[in-house]
Amino acid sequence: MRRSGPGTGLLLGVLATVAVLGVGLALIIRLDGEGSSPPSLGATLSVAEALGAASAEGFERALAPRPLAFPADHGPHPAFRTEWWYWTGNLRAASGGGGRRFGFQLTFFRTALVPVVAARRSAWGTRDVYMAHLALTDVDAGRFHARDRWARGALDLAGAAGDPFRVWLGDWVAEARARAGWPLRLRAGEGDLRIDLTLSGGKPPVLHGERGLSRKSAEAGNASYYYSLTRMPVSGEVQAGGRALPVEGLAWMDREWSTSALGPDQVGWDWFALQLDDGRELMLYRLRQRDGGISPASQGTLVAADGTARALDREAVEVLVLDHWASPRGGTRYPARWRLRIPSAGLDVVVTPLLRDQELDLAVRYWEGAVRVEGTADGRPLGGSGYVELVGYAAVAGGAAEAVRQ
User: Fold this and answer.
1) What is the DSSP string of 305-368?
2) Measured distance CA(30)–CA(53) in Å, rounded
3) Which domains are delineated in the chain?
4) Which H, E and C letters describe 170-235, residue by residue?
5) N- or C-end of the chain: fewer Cβ atoms within 10 A?
6) pLDDT by residue (tens digit) across 93-129?
């Protein structure tokens, strides 16, 4: 999952999720590769506790804006503790597919468990753990599919490179086809679930916050470097239910790296990435506090059709939850429909999930899914599509990572 400002991927980009997963992975993976059985998995942690559990000593922190360069910054930033590469998109089947609709998510996370890896004789030795999430929303079939993978950053099991850009975990891979960074190919699958997509650059990168420095609280260094590619044309193929279909549509990329944690009063976030039919895009994340309020550090970015970006503070966007959905897996209650108003931009839209059940029931349980947008811009009808991520509502599910509970 993603990200604190996200997240998926604030999996938002996702900041708390990566740290939570890092804690769980630390319990089950011996980094020296010299086997011993994993310890008993019985502890429980909140998102905020997990994010605060590891010391920042020895890692770089996001303290001030820095120049970002592309495509170089698509590559890894090993001096920081966590980072993720996060793609989502809405697709339609091309000729022969009857216009069938899909949403997709592919996310890679890297977590460094120590600042520097100790010298070891074992080739299994590493300091980095990688995780990846793949999800596909088959809208017309009313089905949601999700898979995850974990691996250490050793023996070519997983890793990231910047020249040319590539991040991989086994045969799940995102890689640039040229040094310029585009086109970008995403390939991942398991069983009869598979994506093979090619993304073009579209609009230039959008820097969030203060020239790419996205502050999560008032504490110095409690921030990330965060940018997005908000409107990338995509084509390729998806497979679900045994049938491969050619598809095309629009994708979004979130890129974030940091060492910092959420504040002790922050328990999760709601993240929106919306592509509007008038050529604009909206990124918005709302950091939820323990007392039920919304953190003043919550923020967003409104991107104009020409690619220029405008920062939005918490007060600039009005968010009203219109509906909820209860998961059949444990009963977690998620927001399930929203009205967003940005009076200064003339926007008044309703955001609705294409399927109510788009909960990823993986090592970390969270909701992330494809949505549609309907409303007005300056009183004129406006539509759109996008993705929403909801983190910190659910108890973590599944196997070994039951050590961590949000």
Assistant:
1) TTS-EEEEEGGG-EEEEEEEEE-TTT--EEEEEEEEEEGGGTEEEEEEESSS--EEESSSEEEE
2) 19
3) 15-403 (2.40.370.10)
4) CCEEEEECCCCCCCEEEEEEECCEEEEEEECCCCCCEECCECCEEECCCCCCCEEEEEEEEEEEEE
5) C
6) 987 667 899 999 999 999 999 998 778 888 888 999 9
Is the pLDDT assigned to residue 283 strictly greater than 70? yes
Q: Is the peptide bond before 183 cis (omega within 30 degrees of 0)?
A: yes
pLDDT tens column, 223-261 = 999 999 999 999 999 998 878 999 999 999 999 999 976
- The neighbour count for residue 63, using CB atoms within 10 Å, is 12
- pTM of the complete model: 0.88
Three-state DSSP at 241 gives coil
CB atoms within 10 A of CB 38: 12
Give the whole-angstrom CA distance, residue 21 versus residue 193: 24
Structure token digits, residue 262: 């959420």
**Tokens representing 22?**
């890092």
Tokens of 9: 């991927």
- Token pair of 169 as six digits: 């975990």
CA–CA gap between residue 82 and residue 7 (Å, rounded): 12
